[in-house]
Write a structure and sequence with these properties.
Layout (H helix, E strand, L loop, with lengths): L1 H24 L5 H17 L3 E2 L9 E2 L2 E5 L17 H32 L2 E4 L4 E5 L5 E4 L2 E5 L6 H12 L2 H14 L4 H23 L5 H10 L11 E2 L6 H8 L15 H14 L8 E2 L8 E10 L5 E9 L2 E9 L5 E5 L5 H11 L86 H10 L2 E2 H5 L4 E10 L2 E9 L3 H13 L9 E12 L11 H4 L2 H14 L7 E7 L4
Parallel strand pairs: 1-9, 5-7, 17-18
Antiparallel strand pairs: 2-14, 3-18, 4-5, 6-7, 6-8, 10-11, 11-12, 12-13, 15-16, 15-17
């Protein structure tokens, strides 16, 4: 549902920008800057969601893993799968399109009405505008370079000057832009308020420039009051007779002009953009970010415990190797006979430290470390058998009806003939048994996408890797219209491992084609050494209670076997040498 997430995020930023305008800029008389702020905020609000600062994202605390899927002993029943004709995502999409379609039709109707007025009226052509005379009407409004004047309206020079400001500054382009924005975001009330604010600013600009051409602002205000009861034009036009804005226009005409220092208020857009960009990176889990202003530096770390042994002078040595971004380093911890510990790292140790380690403890840092590559298979599983050769029927073999839709099946060879005793006739040859076609393949597991998602995004926690902690976590979740809801841990293993498994399952945003209900999925964590042996162990607090947990867990699974999914096995590798 990325389209909905993007749309909601953009509208949140649009509302924040408009709130900043209402709080800080609404009363300022820098009308052109107000116009620029509102128009740019509409554009920036839709650009920010596709941007992020990757460096702000927390890095995963874990190592690379391999993931396998173990088939459940009792497979879930998929005979009653419910494939809804319309999912929630589709219903929202169609509802959104319906709202946009209605407003599109309304906009087309308004524009069509203006076109009919242009075609059916007398036109006076001017080098700056085209005047459209409307019979029997008391109105005056403009749309792009068309000026519509009713026959009952006295063509006053002030009205012409006022409407020419709208024409000259292309205010109608702003209105059309806001109409399109309203179609896209018809569900956001801030868009309608923003459109009214833009039209109000247009009137302020036209009033300011028109009043500057007359000798008395009070006289211009009186003219507005005396001509406030004419007919309004279409909502996509700028009407001189606008009774609803009359009070605001007169107040702003007589308000003291804002000073140059007030321009600093427009810098409020900078912290709003910064906060929105941080929120876009940290507050939204998304995959539609196209621009990364500061990519995250990924640190690929592999740590291997090399040895732990006693050395001379009654000291004990713990040695560990690490590979950070393909650079090998070593760390040694010396515990003397008094119990004090001190750690030395090869990359930072001084020449005096290395000399002391050699002379006092007889230790030197290794030159290199061979990190074992993950084995290609787990355990002693035999390789799959080679494919059977294609069937070739002999001339004497009976003809078998072939179905091109089914893979050829190799027929077993006939049994060897039994030699006949002397004086007896040989037994008749037995007809080969009718060959049965292989059964159809089982249906595709509808949870394969979930298994693949867990395998792609799960991380084996570093602390669990280093301490060789493994075991099984069981998660439970509700499925509502194919969406995972209310995921929780029903069998805990270790805090960081519980949190990692729960994080990945909660972040799954796909739609599973399975009927709604309650499901459980086991996730196992295993530590494998270079000999393909499982060397993982339970955490200390689980060693005592694990047998009881296993009994309770088995009872839980058997009580509802049809809703227990396949087990996902997460494997990490260590070097025990």
């Amino acid at each position: 549902m990325n389209w909905l997430h993007y749309l909601l995020e953009a509208n949140i930023y649009l509302a924040v920008f408009y709130a900043g305008y209402c709080l800080f800029l609404n009363k300022e008389t820098h009308y052109t800057l107000n116009r620029i702020y509102l128009l740019m905020s509409c554009i920036i609000a839709f650009v920010l969601p596709v941007m992020q600062i990757g460096a702000l994202k927390p890095s995963h605390d874990g190592t690379a893993v391999h993931v396998m899927i173990k088939r459940a002993s009792v497979q879930p029943s998929y005979n009653n799968l419910s494939f809804n004709t319309i999912t929630l995502n589709e219903a929202l999409f169609y509802g959104y399109l319906l709202g946009g379609l209605v407003l599109t039709i309304v906009l087309i109707y308004k524009l069509t009405s203006l076109i009919k007025m242009v075609k059916g009226a007398d036109t006076t052509v001017n080098n700056r505008y085209k005047m459209i005379n409307i019979d029997g009407s008391n109105t005056a409004f403009s749309f792009f370079n068309y000026l519509f004047i009713g026959s009952n309206t006295a063509v006053n020079d002030i009205i012409l000057r006022h409407e020419l400001v709208h024409i000259r500054q292309k205010h109608s382009a702003d209105i059309i832009f806001l109409e399109i924005l309203k179609i896209v975001n018809w569900f956001n009330p801030c868009v309608y308020l923003l459109q009214n604010s833009i039209k109000t600013i247009h009137e302020y600009i036209a009033d300011e420039q028109t009043a500057a051409q007359v000798t008395d602002v009070v006289a211009y205000s009186s003219f507005l009051v005396n001509n406030a009861y004419g007919l309004n034009g279409s909502s996509v036009t700028h009407s001189f007779f606008n009774y609803n804005l009359l009070k605001k226009r007169i107040i702003m005409l007589n308000q003291k002009r804002s000073g140059n220092l007030a321009r600093l208020k427009y810098l409020v857009a900078v912290p709003i953009c910064a906060a929105a960009l941080c929120a876009s990176t940290l507050g939204f889990s998304k995959n539609y970010a196209l621009i990364d202003l500061s990519p995250q530096k990924i640190v690929d770390t592999t740590k291997v415990r090399l040895r732990s042994t006693d050395i001379k002078n009654g000291a004990k040595l713990d040695e560990e190797g690490s590979v950070v971004n393909n650079k090998t380093d070593f760390e040694v911890t010396i515990t003397d006979k008094q119990g004090s510990r001190k750690t030395y790292r090869k990359s930072t140790a001084s020449a005096e430290d290395k000399k002391m380690l050699y002379e006092k403890y007889g230790y030197t840092f290794p030159d290199k470390m061979d990190v074992p590559t993950p084995p290609t298979k787990i355990g002693n599983m035999p390789p799959p058998p080679p494919p059977a050769p294609p069937f070739r029927a002999s001339k004497s073999a009976p003809k078998v009806k072939r179905d091109v839709r089914v893979t050829d099946v190799k027929l077993p060879p006939p049994p060897p003939p039994v030699p006949a005793k002397a004086g007896t006739e040989p037994a008749p040859a037995q007809e080969p048994a009718e060959q049965k076609l292989p059964p159809p393949p089982p249906p595709k597991d509808p949870f394969n996408d979930l298994y693949s998602y867990i395998g792609r995004y799960v991380r084996y926690p570093t602390v669990a890797h280093n301490n060789r902690i493994g075991g099984k976590v069981i998660l439970n979740f509700n499925l509502d219209n194919g969406k995972i809801k209310d995921a929780k841990i029903t069998r805990s293993l270790y805090d960081v491992m519980d949190a990692e498994a729960l994080r990945v399952v909660k972040n799954y945003d796909g739609t599973l084609p399975v009927k709604s209900g309650n499901y459980s999925i086991p996730v196992s964590f295993s530590v494998i050494d270079q000999n393909n042996n499982n060397v993982s162990k339970l955490p200390d607090h689980k060693n005592i209670t694990d047998s009881k947990s296993e009994i309770n867990n088995t009872a839980t699974i058997q009580s509802n076997p049809s809703n227990t999914l396949n087990e996902v096995v997460v494997v990490t590798y260590v070097n025990t040498k």
